[in-house]
């Protein structure tokens, strides 16, 4: 017996066996005054899920339900909730807590709060319960991390915006992507495809940098103005110092990752942002690589609530369609979907659907 | 016999014997329409000189006269010169050529021009002559890289501003150092001392980060508002995410270089600028180091003509005094001064003086 409310979800029990999901009940935190209880309708599949359950980002508390691109219906709201109404269709992304009081939180930088907690795998200090993600029947979260989904966006397409989407949107808008600016997106996967969609919607000249030309047609279909394949000799030469912003979505900083080449694209004081977080995330840079253009190397962590709402509205206003493959959720389909994602066998994002069949209506 | 005009200077003949200077005549480029001919009065000693003559920055054409913090008198100016008048006291820094036509040059970014050339060690394409520096009787340079020195600044104190000074001034002003901003200067050497002087003059709250407290009194005397010694346990803890800008002057990225600690000082999207260029200049960074605050790592290359003039005026207007030890120039004194600089036995900059005794009046 447990003193806590329980939800039901698909959990991974061991990093050694991270593609095996087991459906079971788990405890959830007490319903707080600012909490929203959400019946989950669908959830996107994010590389973060894999980095977490395979131990690549470090040892985590298992068993764990991952999934942090959650869309569902607000069943009830706490007495102090003002941002969400019961009955609304809402989303939850990768973050579910920050102090909301520090300087960072007060400046729309709550994703950089020192006390931030992830939607899954974090420990609630008061109860010791571990936060659980969206491959589950329900989720209970503070209203600050619950976002109304505009009617114009189908749930399965909204889901991946809540982590992959915002991960690209925030660095684009914070680094000036817009009319008159030239943006390169390195890597056309789940993150990259949002990079192209957002950068175009924001009005920037948008290029894709990929290993080969295999995805060029897709990139053009998403709206890319230009496409560079690093397997072409001298691929960067005609483009040296012509970009304002390069956002990398690379999931691997191994030999194929041509950092010097990407940096060579940047105009004076241009910025290179690594939006991906490879499991072995070491980047070796030398001062001369930075001096040539006085460029900057940085990263970015999700995006603020304000940015999340802006992004969803931008998608709704512009009819932006994420490229999503829908997969009915089950222990077996989660296993096969994770395996496919590891092989990059996805164009360009998975959303687990049919939650009613798995968890009941 | 040579068809070129000749100057006289102290040259290094071999990277293996880079502390041996030999006085001899060398060819100089033909006097161009935009050139200024300068009789040198004094020249600062820069770590770049050592990195060049010892081969640490790569093999260079020797013999070579180094020295690129030059102050002297404009003896004559070419027929198209408008920026400098004959008879003026002027300075020359580390750069002596750019195309002045490209996008970078047209935007006050001539130090990032792809065709830039250094004051010493570069090859003039038309003649094949190698540019020679300021441990010499004269220098002949395009007016764009010749700067009038305000009367209020003594020559020996102006000299180190022309490389060390501008190397710190440009990243400070380009990254917003001013009232309401908090700036940390890592390392209190020749560069660092200018960092403190400029940051204070620009109105920023200015801190020094050093290995020990040995230089704290000097830092305070230069105007530093705070001082952190990395040998103090937990030195960075109370200061996490409180700085807007950290400028490193480190000449060595070895074990004592606590990059993660320096980055921890930065507030959201703060910038870490490496103004030094160590001979082994590899920086190993990991995405998590960057994600915590969304900070940026960058570098900087000298500063534009406009910035150079602004900096000299700031020094004149504020009575800013560089901390300079004057050394009469000779083959012997250059050798001993280079050796002292290598041991950081300098507070905080050397200027070679008494050129009339070495080269005649």
Automatic annotation (TrEMBL), chains A, B:
EC class of this enzyme?
A: oxidoreductase
Q: Which cofactor does it need?
A: Zn(2+)
Q: Entry's InterPro entries?
A: ADH-like_C, ADH-like_N, ADH_Zn_CS, CAD-like, GroES-like_sf, NAD(P)-bd_dom_sf
Quaternary structure and partners: Homodimer.
- One Pfam annotation reads ADH_zinc_N
Species, as recorded: Thyridium curvatum
Q: Which Gene Ontology molecular function entries are recorded, alphabetically?
A: alcohol dehydrogenase (NADP+) activity; zinc ion binding
Which biological processes are named by the entry's GO terms? alcohol metabolic process
Q: Supply the EC number(s).
A: 1.1.1.2
**Family assignment?**
Belongs to the zinc-containing alcohol dehydrogenase family.
- What are the protein's UniProt keywords? Metal-binding, NADP, Oxidoreductase, Phosphoprotein, Zinc
Where's the Alcohol dehydrogenase-like C-terminal domain?
190-316
Q: Which Gene3D superfamilies match?
A: Medium-chain alcohol dehydrogenases, catalytic domain, NAD(P)-binding Rossmann-like Domain
Give the protein name, as stated in the record: alcohol dehydrogenase (NADP(+))
> Boundaries of each Alcohol dehydrogenase-like N-terminal domain copy?
33-151
Recorded catalytic reaction(s): these are: a primary alcohol + NADP(+) = an aldehyde + NADPH + H(+)
